[in-house]
Design goal:
44% of the residues lie in helices and 14% in strands. It has 497 residues and is of the alpha/beta class. The chain folds into 3 domains: 2-142, Cobalamin-binding domain (Rossmann fold); 167-405, Aldolase class I (TIM Barrel); 432-494. It binds cobalamin and iron/sulfur cluster (SF4). Residues 176, 178-180, 183, 185-186, 222-223, 256, 280 line the site of iron/sulfur cluster.
Length: 497
């Protein structure tokens, strides 16, 4: 059986890092881990090919070759998914699909996909495969429980050209113990974090290492510290592995703010090679934190917590939201101040949107405030419900936040603030690709950039070369990110309401 695995295209969003990729000579920021994992569950005798539309084109011959096309996607990829499904339909090729888009919006795809395999494939895929073998596969398979991750196979990295990606990925757990109103993680993956064993994680790292990968690896957990006790037992083994190989990788992940007062955990993570953590900081408005049930953030002085992590050698990336019912027109300047003072350079600011079947979605539905489906991109400046604040004021205010924090001056100030606080544990070795990125940045930002960006670029290079030499590589990377964020911010500002 010939099976074509297809990963649809991402639009150019905050997270696509599309405008950074030419600097690092990569085609995409992240590989399709879900699809690679599912590939590991398919029968060994099947012939598999994977086309990631963020890296390659999908040719008619690819579809014609396949007996079945399997698609994986999140909501933001929906437009590309629809195009892929239409092409398969025209060629009469059987389709199967899974992943968060299909799991959270099953009804939208009932007539478009032959087999929807919903929830985690460890549970929903085996019955599909068994029925397919007997020629009686059904339209929908749903996972009724959350699987134990010890069943999850090692991703089939051999199916993709890993060097075309900027960062590789690994997953140590699924699920999050918190239950924020707007988040669909607890629907999709539950509130009890399920972890892989240290042995299994090391096995996955061994595969990436033996394939020659050096550089960034993203632990794509919903909350890496969701089960602190377990992860503290795993980290010493990661530390030993990394030390024995002289730190071939740097790790980034997502965690909740209660990392910041756990010295033991911070120390273990930094020692293991974690230098970046994404945290949902959301808002400086305490009523809004209460509204969205982000109780963990209320327990901390968030600015002090961020500073503490930066001083320990962890760069904090932040997620922020405006548009809560408790936000009034002062929220825009408060968010700007909060972001600027924190030195969180990579600040993903979104308008509140209701993802299907979240608690927020249910509440807004009951209040008759839900409008249309979410685009799935929380940074595209659209909103899918009737907000309490006047909608135009909210959208204009949102745009102002994005425009301001990514203006060359404010961005420069934030990078400076970050560098003042950041105490990297070890100097980040510039890889050859990063060195080439640096040379390209000299040309595109330093020589060909416009007057203002050129000025701040050179100012930052000089400043970091003199005062922050240990973090010089980070400073260059952040200036390149700034270029991407400005392009995305410009697109958001130019959109019609
Ligand atoms: C890593 C990640 C990213 C990476 C993407 C990397 C990539 N190339 O995929 C980055 C940082 C770019 C990203 C960005 C965004 N993300 Co994201 N992301 C994740 C995260 C944390 C892990 C995804 C992952 O790799 N999981 C590991 C693999 C093994 O799991 P999986 O893909 O779910 O696959 C399993 C099942 O879904 C299923 N399955 C998957 N595909 C298929 C296919 C078939 C055929 C079958 C049978 C089964 C199947 O089987 C697999 C094994 O069980 C998830 C949360 C999560 N826990 O999944 C959010 C998540 C997918 N992201 C989400 C969102 C909303 C976004 C953003 C819009 C912004 C944001 N809030 O972060 C942006 C949009 C992307 C863009 N470019 O604009 C939502 C999606 C909601 C939805 N219903 O679609 C999630 C669920 C988290 C959340 N609630 O915020 N994200
Ligand atoms: S802490 Fe993060 S992953 Fe957990 S429920 Fe809240 S938003 Fe979702």
């Amino acid at each position: 059986m010939n099976v074509l695995l297809v990963h649809p295209e991402y639009p150019a969003t905050f997270w696509s890092f599309k405008h950074v990729l030419p600097f690092v000579a990569k085609k995409a920021a992240y590989p399709p881990l879900g699809l690679l994992t599912v590939a590991g569950m398919l029968p060994r005798e099947w012939v598999l090919r994977l086309v990631d539309l963020n890296v390659d084109k999908l040719k008619d011959q690819d579809i014609e070759w396949a007996d079945m096309v399997m698609v994986s996607a999140m909501m933001v990829q929906k437009p590309s998914v629809l195009r892929v499904l239409e092409r398969c339909r025209q060629k009469g090729v059987r389709t199967a699909a899974g992943g968060p888009l299909f799991t959270s919006a099953e009804d939208d795809f009932k007539d478009l996909v032959d087999h929807l395999i919903l929830g985690e494939a460890e549970i929903s895929l085996p019955p599909f495969l068994a029925d397919l073998a007997e020629n009686r596969a059904e339209p929908v398979y749903r996972a009724a429980q959350f699987p134990d991750l010890t069943q999850t196979p090692v991703p089939r990295w051999d199916l993709i050209p890993i060097r075309k990606y900027a960062t590789l990925m690994i997953q140590s757990s699924r699920g999050c113990p918190f239950n924020c109103e707007f988040c669909d993680i607890t629907n999709l993956f539950g509130r009890v974090p399920r972890l892989k064993t240290a042995e299994r994680l090391i096995g996955e790292l061994d595969v990436m290492y033996s394939m020659g990968w050096r550089g960034n690896i993203f632990f794509v957990d919903d909350n890496f510290i969701g089960n602190k006790g377990q992860i503290k037992k795993i980290l010493p083994e990661l530390i030993a592995w990394m030390k024995a190989r002289n730190y071939p990788f740097t790790f980034l992940t997502e965690a909740s703010i209660n990392l910041s007062d756990d010295e033991e955990l911070i120390e273990l993570m930094v020692e293991a090679g974690f230098d970046t953590v994404f945290i949902g900081l959301e808002t400086p408005n305490e009523q809004s934190l209460r509204e969205c049930e982000k109780s963990q953030n209320l327990k901390f002085d968030m600015l002090a917590a961020i500073e503490h992590l930066q001083a320990a050698g962890i760069q904090v990336l932040g997620g922020y939201i405006v548009g809560f019912d408790n936000d009034d027109e002062t929220i825009f300047s408060r968010q700007i101040k909060f972001i600027q003072e924190s030195g969180v350079v990579t600040a993903m600011v979104g308008l509140l949107n209701a993802l299907p079947n979240t608690k927020l979605w249910q509440r807004l539905k009951e209040e008759n405030r839900l409008l249309l489906g979410s685009s799935g991109d929380n940074t595209d400046g659209t909103i899918n419900f009737i907000p309490k604040m006047d909608k135009d004021t909210l959208i204009q205010g949102y745009r102002k936040v994005v425009r301001t924090i990514y203006s060359p001056r404010q961005f420069y100030r934030r990078v400076s603030r970050f560098l003042e606080k950041y105490q990297p544990r070890r100097r980040r070795r510039m890889t050859f690709a990063e060195f080439k990125a640096f040379l390209r940045s000299l040309l595109y930002l330093g020589v060909l950039g416009n007057g203002v960006t050129q000025w701040y670029y050179w100012k930052m290079l000089v400043k970091s070369a003199i005062f922050h030499r240990k973090a010089f590589s980070e400073a260059v990377t952040l200036m390149i990110y700034g270029y991407h964020f400005r392009k995305v911010a410009k697109k958001v500002s130019a959109q019609r309401s």
